[in-house]
Design goal:
The complex is a heterodimer of chains A (309) and B (300). Chain A has 309 residues and is mostly helical. Chain A has two domains: 1-35; 71-302, MetI-like (MetI-like fold), CATH 1.10.3720.10. Chain A has 16 helices and two strands. Chain A has helices spanning 2-9, 12-17, 19-41, 55-58, 65-71, 74-106, 111-122, 129-140, 145-152, 166-194, 198-206, 211-235, 244-249, 255-258, 261-271, 275-302, and strands at 48-49, 60-61. A two-stranded antiparallel ribbon of chain A has the order 1-2. The two termini of chain A are 21 Å apart. The model of chain A is unreliable at 1-5 (pLDDT under 50). With 300 residues, chain B is an all-alpha fold. Chain B contains 16 helices and no strands. Chain B is globular and about 75 Å long. The N and C termini of chain B lie far apart (56 Å). The chains are: A mainly alpha (309), B mainly alpha (300). The interface between A and B is large, with 89 and 88 residues.
C-alpha cells in the first residue's frame, strides 16, 4: 500500500531529472540479480537428483530425499556439531579478548606506548590464513617453540604433536582466531570508550571510585550498546566462520573434530560431484544462520537493547 | 605495614600493582603478536639445513639470501605475484567505483527508488546461494579458468556500500542543492562535489578490498585450479605449506634438501615476501581504517 502511495508522487519530471541515477541503479541491479540472486535458483538442485547432463530443468524431482540422506549421515551430524561448537567458542573467546584488550589498553597512560601496542595489535589481521596456519604449524611442530618451552619447563617429557590429537584442535582454532583478530576487533571498542563523556569519569573520581569501580560502572556500561550490536551482527555469522582455518589445519588424524559444513559441501559437492547433497547442506547452513539472527534479534528486543532490524 | 596506612594509600598500592600487571600484559601481547613474524624473518635469512638444527629465534645464525633467490627463481611464484598484484589493483579500483556509485545513489534523499534499492542490496548480506550454485553459475558464465572470476563477482558488496553510504549521509545537503542551482547534474555532483569529500572513506574501503584481494586463495583453488597461469601468491604459498607438512619429519626434509635450501626455509622466504607489502603499508593507513570501522561497523 505504502508503495502505491509513493508511486503517485513520481512524476515524469522527477524521473527525467533522476535519469542518471535510475540508469546506474538499473545496471547495478542487473549485476546484483546475476551474482547474488541467480544462485538462489540453484537451490532447486537440493530437491532433485541433479545430473549435470540433464541440467536444472530436466533432473528428476526427489522432494526431501536429499535432506533425509543428509541427516541420516552420521558424519554430517558430526560436521554440524563441529561448526556450531567452534563457531560459538570462537565468538565468545574473541569477544571477551577484544573487550578485555580494549579496556586494558585504555588504562595505559603513556600515549606513545598505547599507540605502539595498538599499531602492532592490528598486524595479524592483515595476514592471510595461509600465513597464519603456516606460522601455527611451525610454532606447534615437534621442534617448534611451544614444544621447546614446554620441554624446558619440564611440563612435557617429550615433544607432543599437537595436530595429531583431536582434543587440541578446537583450542588451537580458538587461539588462532584470538591471535589474528583481537587487536582489530578492539578498534570499535576503543573508539566507543573514547566517546564516553569524560565528566562521568570525573564524577566517579570525586566519589572516590578506584580503577576497578571506574571500569565496572563507567567504561563497561558505556560500551555495552556497542557490545550488544556487534554480538548481534556476529551471531548470524557463527556458521560462516568455519572454513579457511579448519580446511588448512585439518588432517586425517583430527578430521572427526575439524570438518565443518563448508568443508563437507566442498568435499561432496565439488570433489565428489554430488551437487544435490552439497546444495542441501548449504541450504541448511543458510537456514540455521537466519534462524540464529532472528532469535538473537528477538532476545535483544525483549531486553530493550539495540537491534538490527 | 599496609594495615596502618590509610585507605587512599592502599588503593594507590593496588593501583601500582595494576599498572605493573597491565604493562606486563601489554608486553606479553606484543611478544606473542610479533614473535612468529620475526621468527619467520630470521628463518628466511638463515641457511636452510642449519635451521633444521633448531635454535633460531629472532636472529639468523648462518646468514644467507639463498632462500630468497630460490623463491625469486620459482616461475609459479612469479606468476602468482603478477596475478595477485593485477587482481589487487584492478579489483580494488572496480570495487571502489561500483560501491561509491551505488552508495551515492542510495544516499540521495529524494531518489524515487531509494528504499527498494537499499533493501535489494541489504538482503544479499544475509541470503546467498551457497558454494555449489555459485560454482555452477560461474562455470556457466565462463568465469572459471579466467582472471575475471577474481575481480567481477565480489565487486559490489552491501557491507562496503553501507560504509560509504553512512559517510555520505553526513555530508550537508546544502552542498548538493547549491550545485543543482548552478545547473550541475548528478554526475557532476558525484565526481566533483561528493567524491572529493569522501576520500577518507574511499581509502578505508579500498584498504578492505585490497587486503581481501591480496590474501585470497580459495577462489584460485576452486575456480582456476586447472589454469597454472592464473594462480595467486597465497595459493602457491598454500601449496608450499602442504608440501612442507606432508614432508613429515625434518630428517626426511634434510635428505631432500639439495644443498642449503629446505622447503621450510623457502616457505619462510615466500611468506616474508608475501606479507612485506602489507606490513609496510598498513601503519600509514591506520587512521583511515580506524575511522572507517567506527562509522561502518556500529551504525548501519
Amino acid at each position: 500500500m505504502a508503495s502505491q502511495e509513493k508511486k503517485k508522487n513520481i512524476t515524469w519530471k522527477e524521473i527525467k531529472k533522476q535519469k542518471v541515477l535510475i540508469i546506474w541503479s538499473l545496471v547495478l541491479v542487473i549485476y546484483g540479480v546475476i551474482f547474488y540472486y541467480l544462485p538462489l535458483a540453484g537451490w532447486a538442485m537440493a530437491f532433485q537428483d541433479y545430473k549435470p547432463k540433464n541440467g536444472l530443468f530436466h533432473s528428476a524431482f526427489v522432494g526431501m530425499d536429499k535432506f533425509k540422506q543428509l541427516f541420516s549421515d552420521a558424519s554430517f551430524i558430526r560436521v554440524i556439531r563441529n561448526t556450531l561448537g567452534m563457531g560459538v567458542i570462537n565468538l565468545i573467546v574473541t569477544f571477551v579478548m577484544a573487550i578485555l584488550f580494549a579496556i586494558l589498553l585504555n588504562e595505559v597512560k603513556s600515549n606513545g606506548g598505547k599507540k605502539t601496542v595498538q599499531t602492532i595489535s592490528y598486524l595479524p589481521h592483515f595476514l592471510s590464513w595461509i600465513i597464519v596456519t603456516g606460522i601455527l604449524h611451525d610454532a606447534l611442530s615437534s621442534t617448534g617453540i611451544i614444544n621447546e618451552l614446554l620441554l624446558k619447563f619440564h611440563i612435557l617429557d617429550q615433544p607432543l604433536n599437537f595436530f595429531a590429537h583431536p582434543k587440541f584442535f578446537w583450542p588451537i582454532v580458538a587461539f588462532a582466531n584470538v591471535w589474528k583478530e583481537t587487536g582489530w576487533n578492539a578498534i570499535i571498542y576503543l573508539s566507543a570508550i573514547t566517546a564516553i563523556d569524560p565528566s562521568l569519569y570525573e564524577a566517579a573520581n570525586m566519589d572516590g571510585a578506584g580503577r576497578w569501580a571506574r571500569i565496572r560502572y563507567v567504561t563497561l556500561p558505556g560500551i555495552k550498546p556497542t557490545i550488544m550490536i556487534l554480538l548481534l551482527m556476529n551471531v548470524g555469522n557463527v556458521l560462516n566462520a568455519g572454513f579457511e582455518i579448519q580446511y588448512l589445519l585439518g588432517n586425517g588424524l583430527v578430521q572427526s573434530v575439524s570438518q565443518t559444513i563448508d568443508i563437507y559441501v566442498l568435499k561432496w559437492g565439488i570433489s565428489q560431484n554430488d551437487f544435490s547433497i552439497g546444495t542441501a547442506a548449504g541450504i541448511f547452513k543458510s537456514f540455521v544462520s537466519i534462524v540464529l539472527i532472528v532469535i538473537a534479534n528477538q532476545i535483544a528486543k525483549k531486553n530493550g537493547e539495540e537491534r538490527l532490524f | 605495614m599496609e594495615k596502618n596506612k590509610s585507605g587512599k594509600i592502599k588503593t594507590s598500592v593496588w593501583d601500582k600493582v595494576f599498572v605493573v600487571c597491565n604493562t606486563l600484559f601489554m608486553v606479553a601481547f606484543v611478544i606473542i603478536t610479533l614473535y612468529p613474524v620475526l621468527n619467520t624473518l630470521a628463518i628466511s635469512l638463515n641457511d636452510g639445513t642449519d635451521a633444521l638444527r633448531g635454535g633460531i629465534y629472532l636472529w639468523p645464525r648462518k646468514w644467507t639470501f639463498k632462500n630468497y633467490i630460490t623463491v625469486l627463481q620459482k616461475d609459479n611464484l612469479i606468476t602468482g605475484a603478477y596475478i595477485t598484484v593485477a587482481r589487487t589493483i584492478l579489483g580494488t579500483l572496480l570495487a571502489l567505483v561500483a560501491n561509491a556509485i551505488l552508495a551515492f545513489i542510495v544516499s540521495r534523499k529524494n531518489f524515487i527508488f531509494k528504499r527498494s534499492l537499499s533493501l535489494f542490496w541489504v538482503v544479499t548480506m544475509y541470503v546467498n546461494g551457497g558454494m555449489i550454485p555459485t560454482f555452477l553459475l560461474y562455470k556457466n558464465l565462463h568465469l572459471t579458468n579466467s582472471f575475471w572470476v577474481y575481480v567481477v563477482p565480489g565487486m559490489v558488496s552491501a557491507f562496503n556500500m553501507l560504509v560509504i553510504r553512512t559517510y555520505m549521509a553526513g555530508i550537508p545537503d546544502s552542498l548538493e542543492e547549491s550545485a543543482q542551482l548552478d545547473g550541475a547534474g548528478y554526475t557532476t555532483i558525484f565526481v566533483k562535489i561528493i567524491s572529493p569529500l569522501c576520500k577518507p572513506v574511499y581509502a578505508t574501503v579500498a584498504l578492505f578490498v585490497a587486503v581481501g584481494q591480496w590474501n585470497s586463495w580459495f577462489d584460485a583453488m576452486l575456480y582456476n585450479r586447472m589454469s597454472a597461469h592464473l594462480t595467486t601468491l597465497q595459493y602457491e604459498l598454500m601449496k608450499l605449506l602442504s608440501s612442507v607438512t606432508n614432508q613429515g619429519t625434518s630428517a626426511e626434509a634434510m635428505k631432500n634438501a639439495a644443498g642449503t635450501v629446505t622447503p621450510t626455509s623457502v616457505r619462510a622466504a615466500a611468506t616474508v615476501l608475501t606479507m612485506l607489502p602489507i606490513i609496510c603499508l598498513y601503519p600509514f593507513l591506520q587512521r583511515y581504517f580506524v575511522t572507517g570501522l567506527t562509522i561502518g561497523g556500529v551504525k548501519e
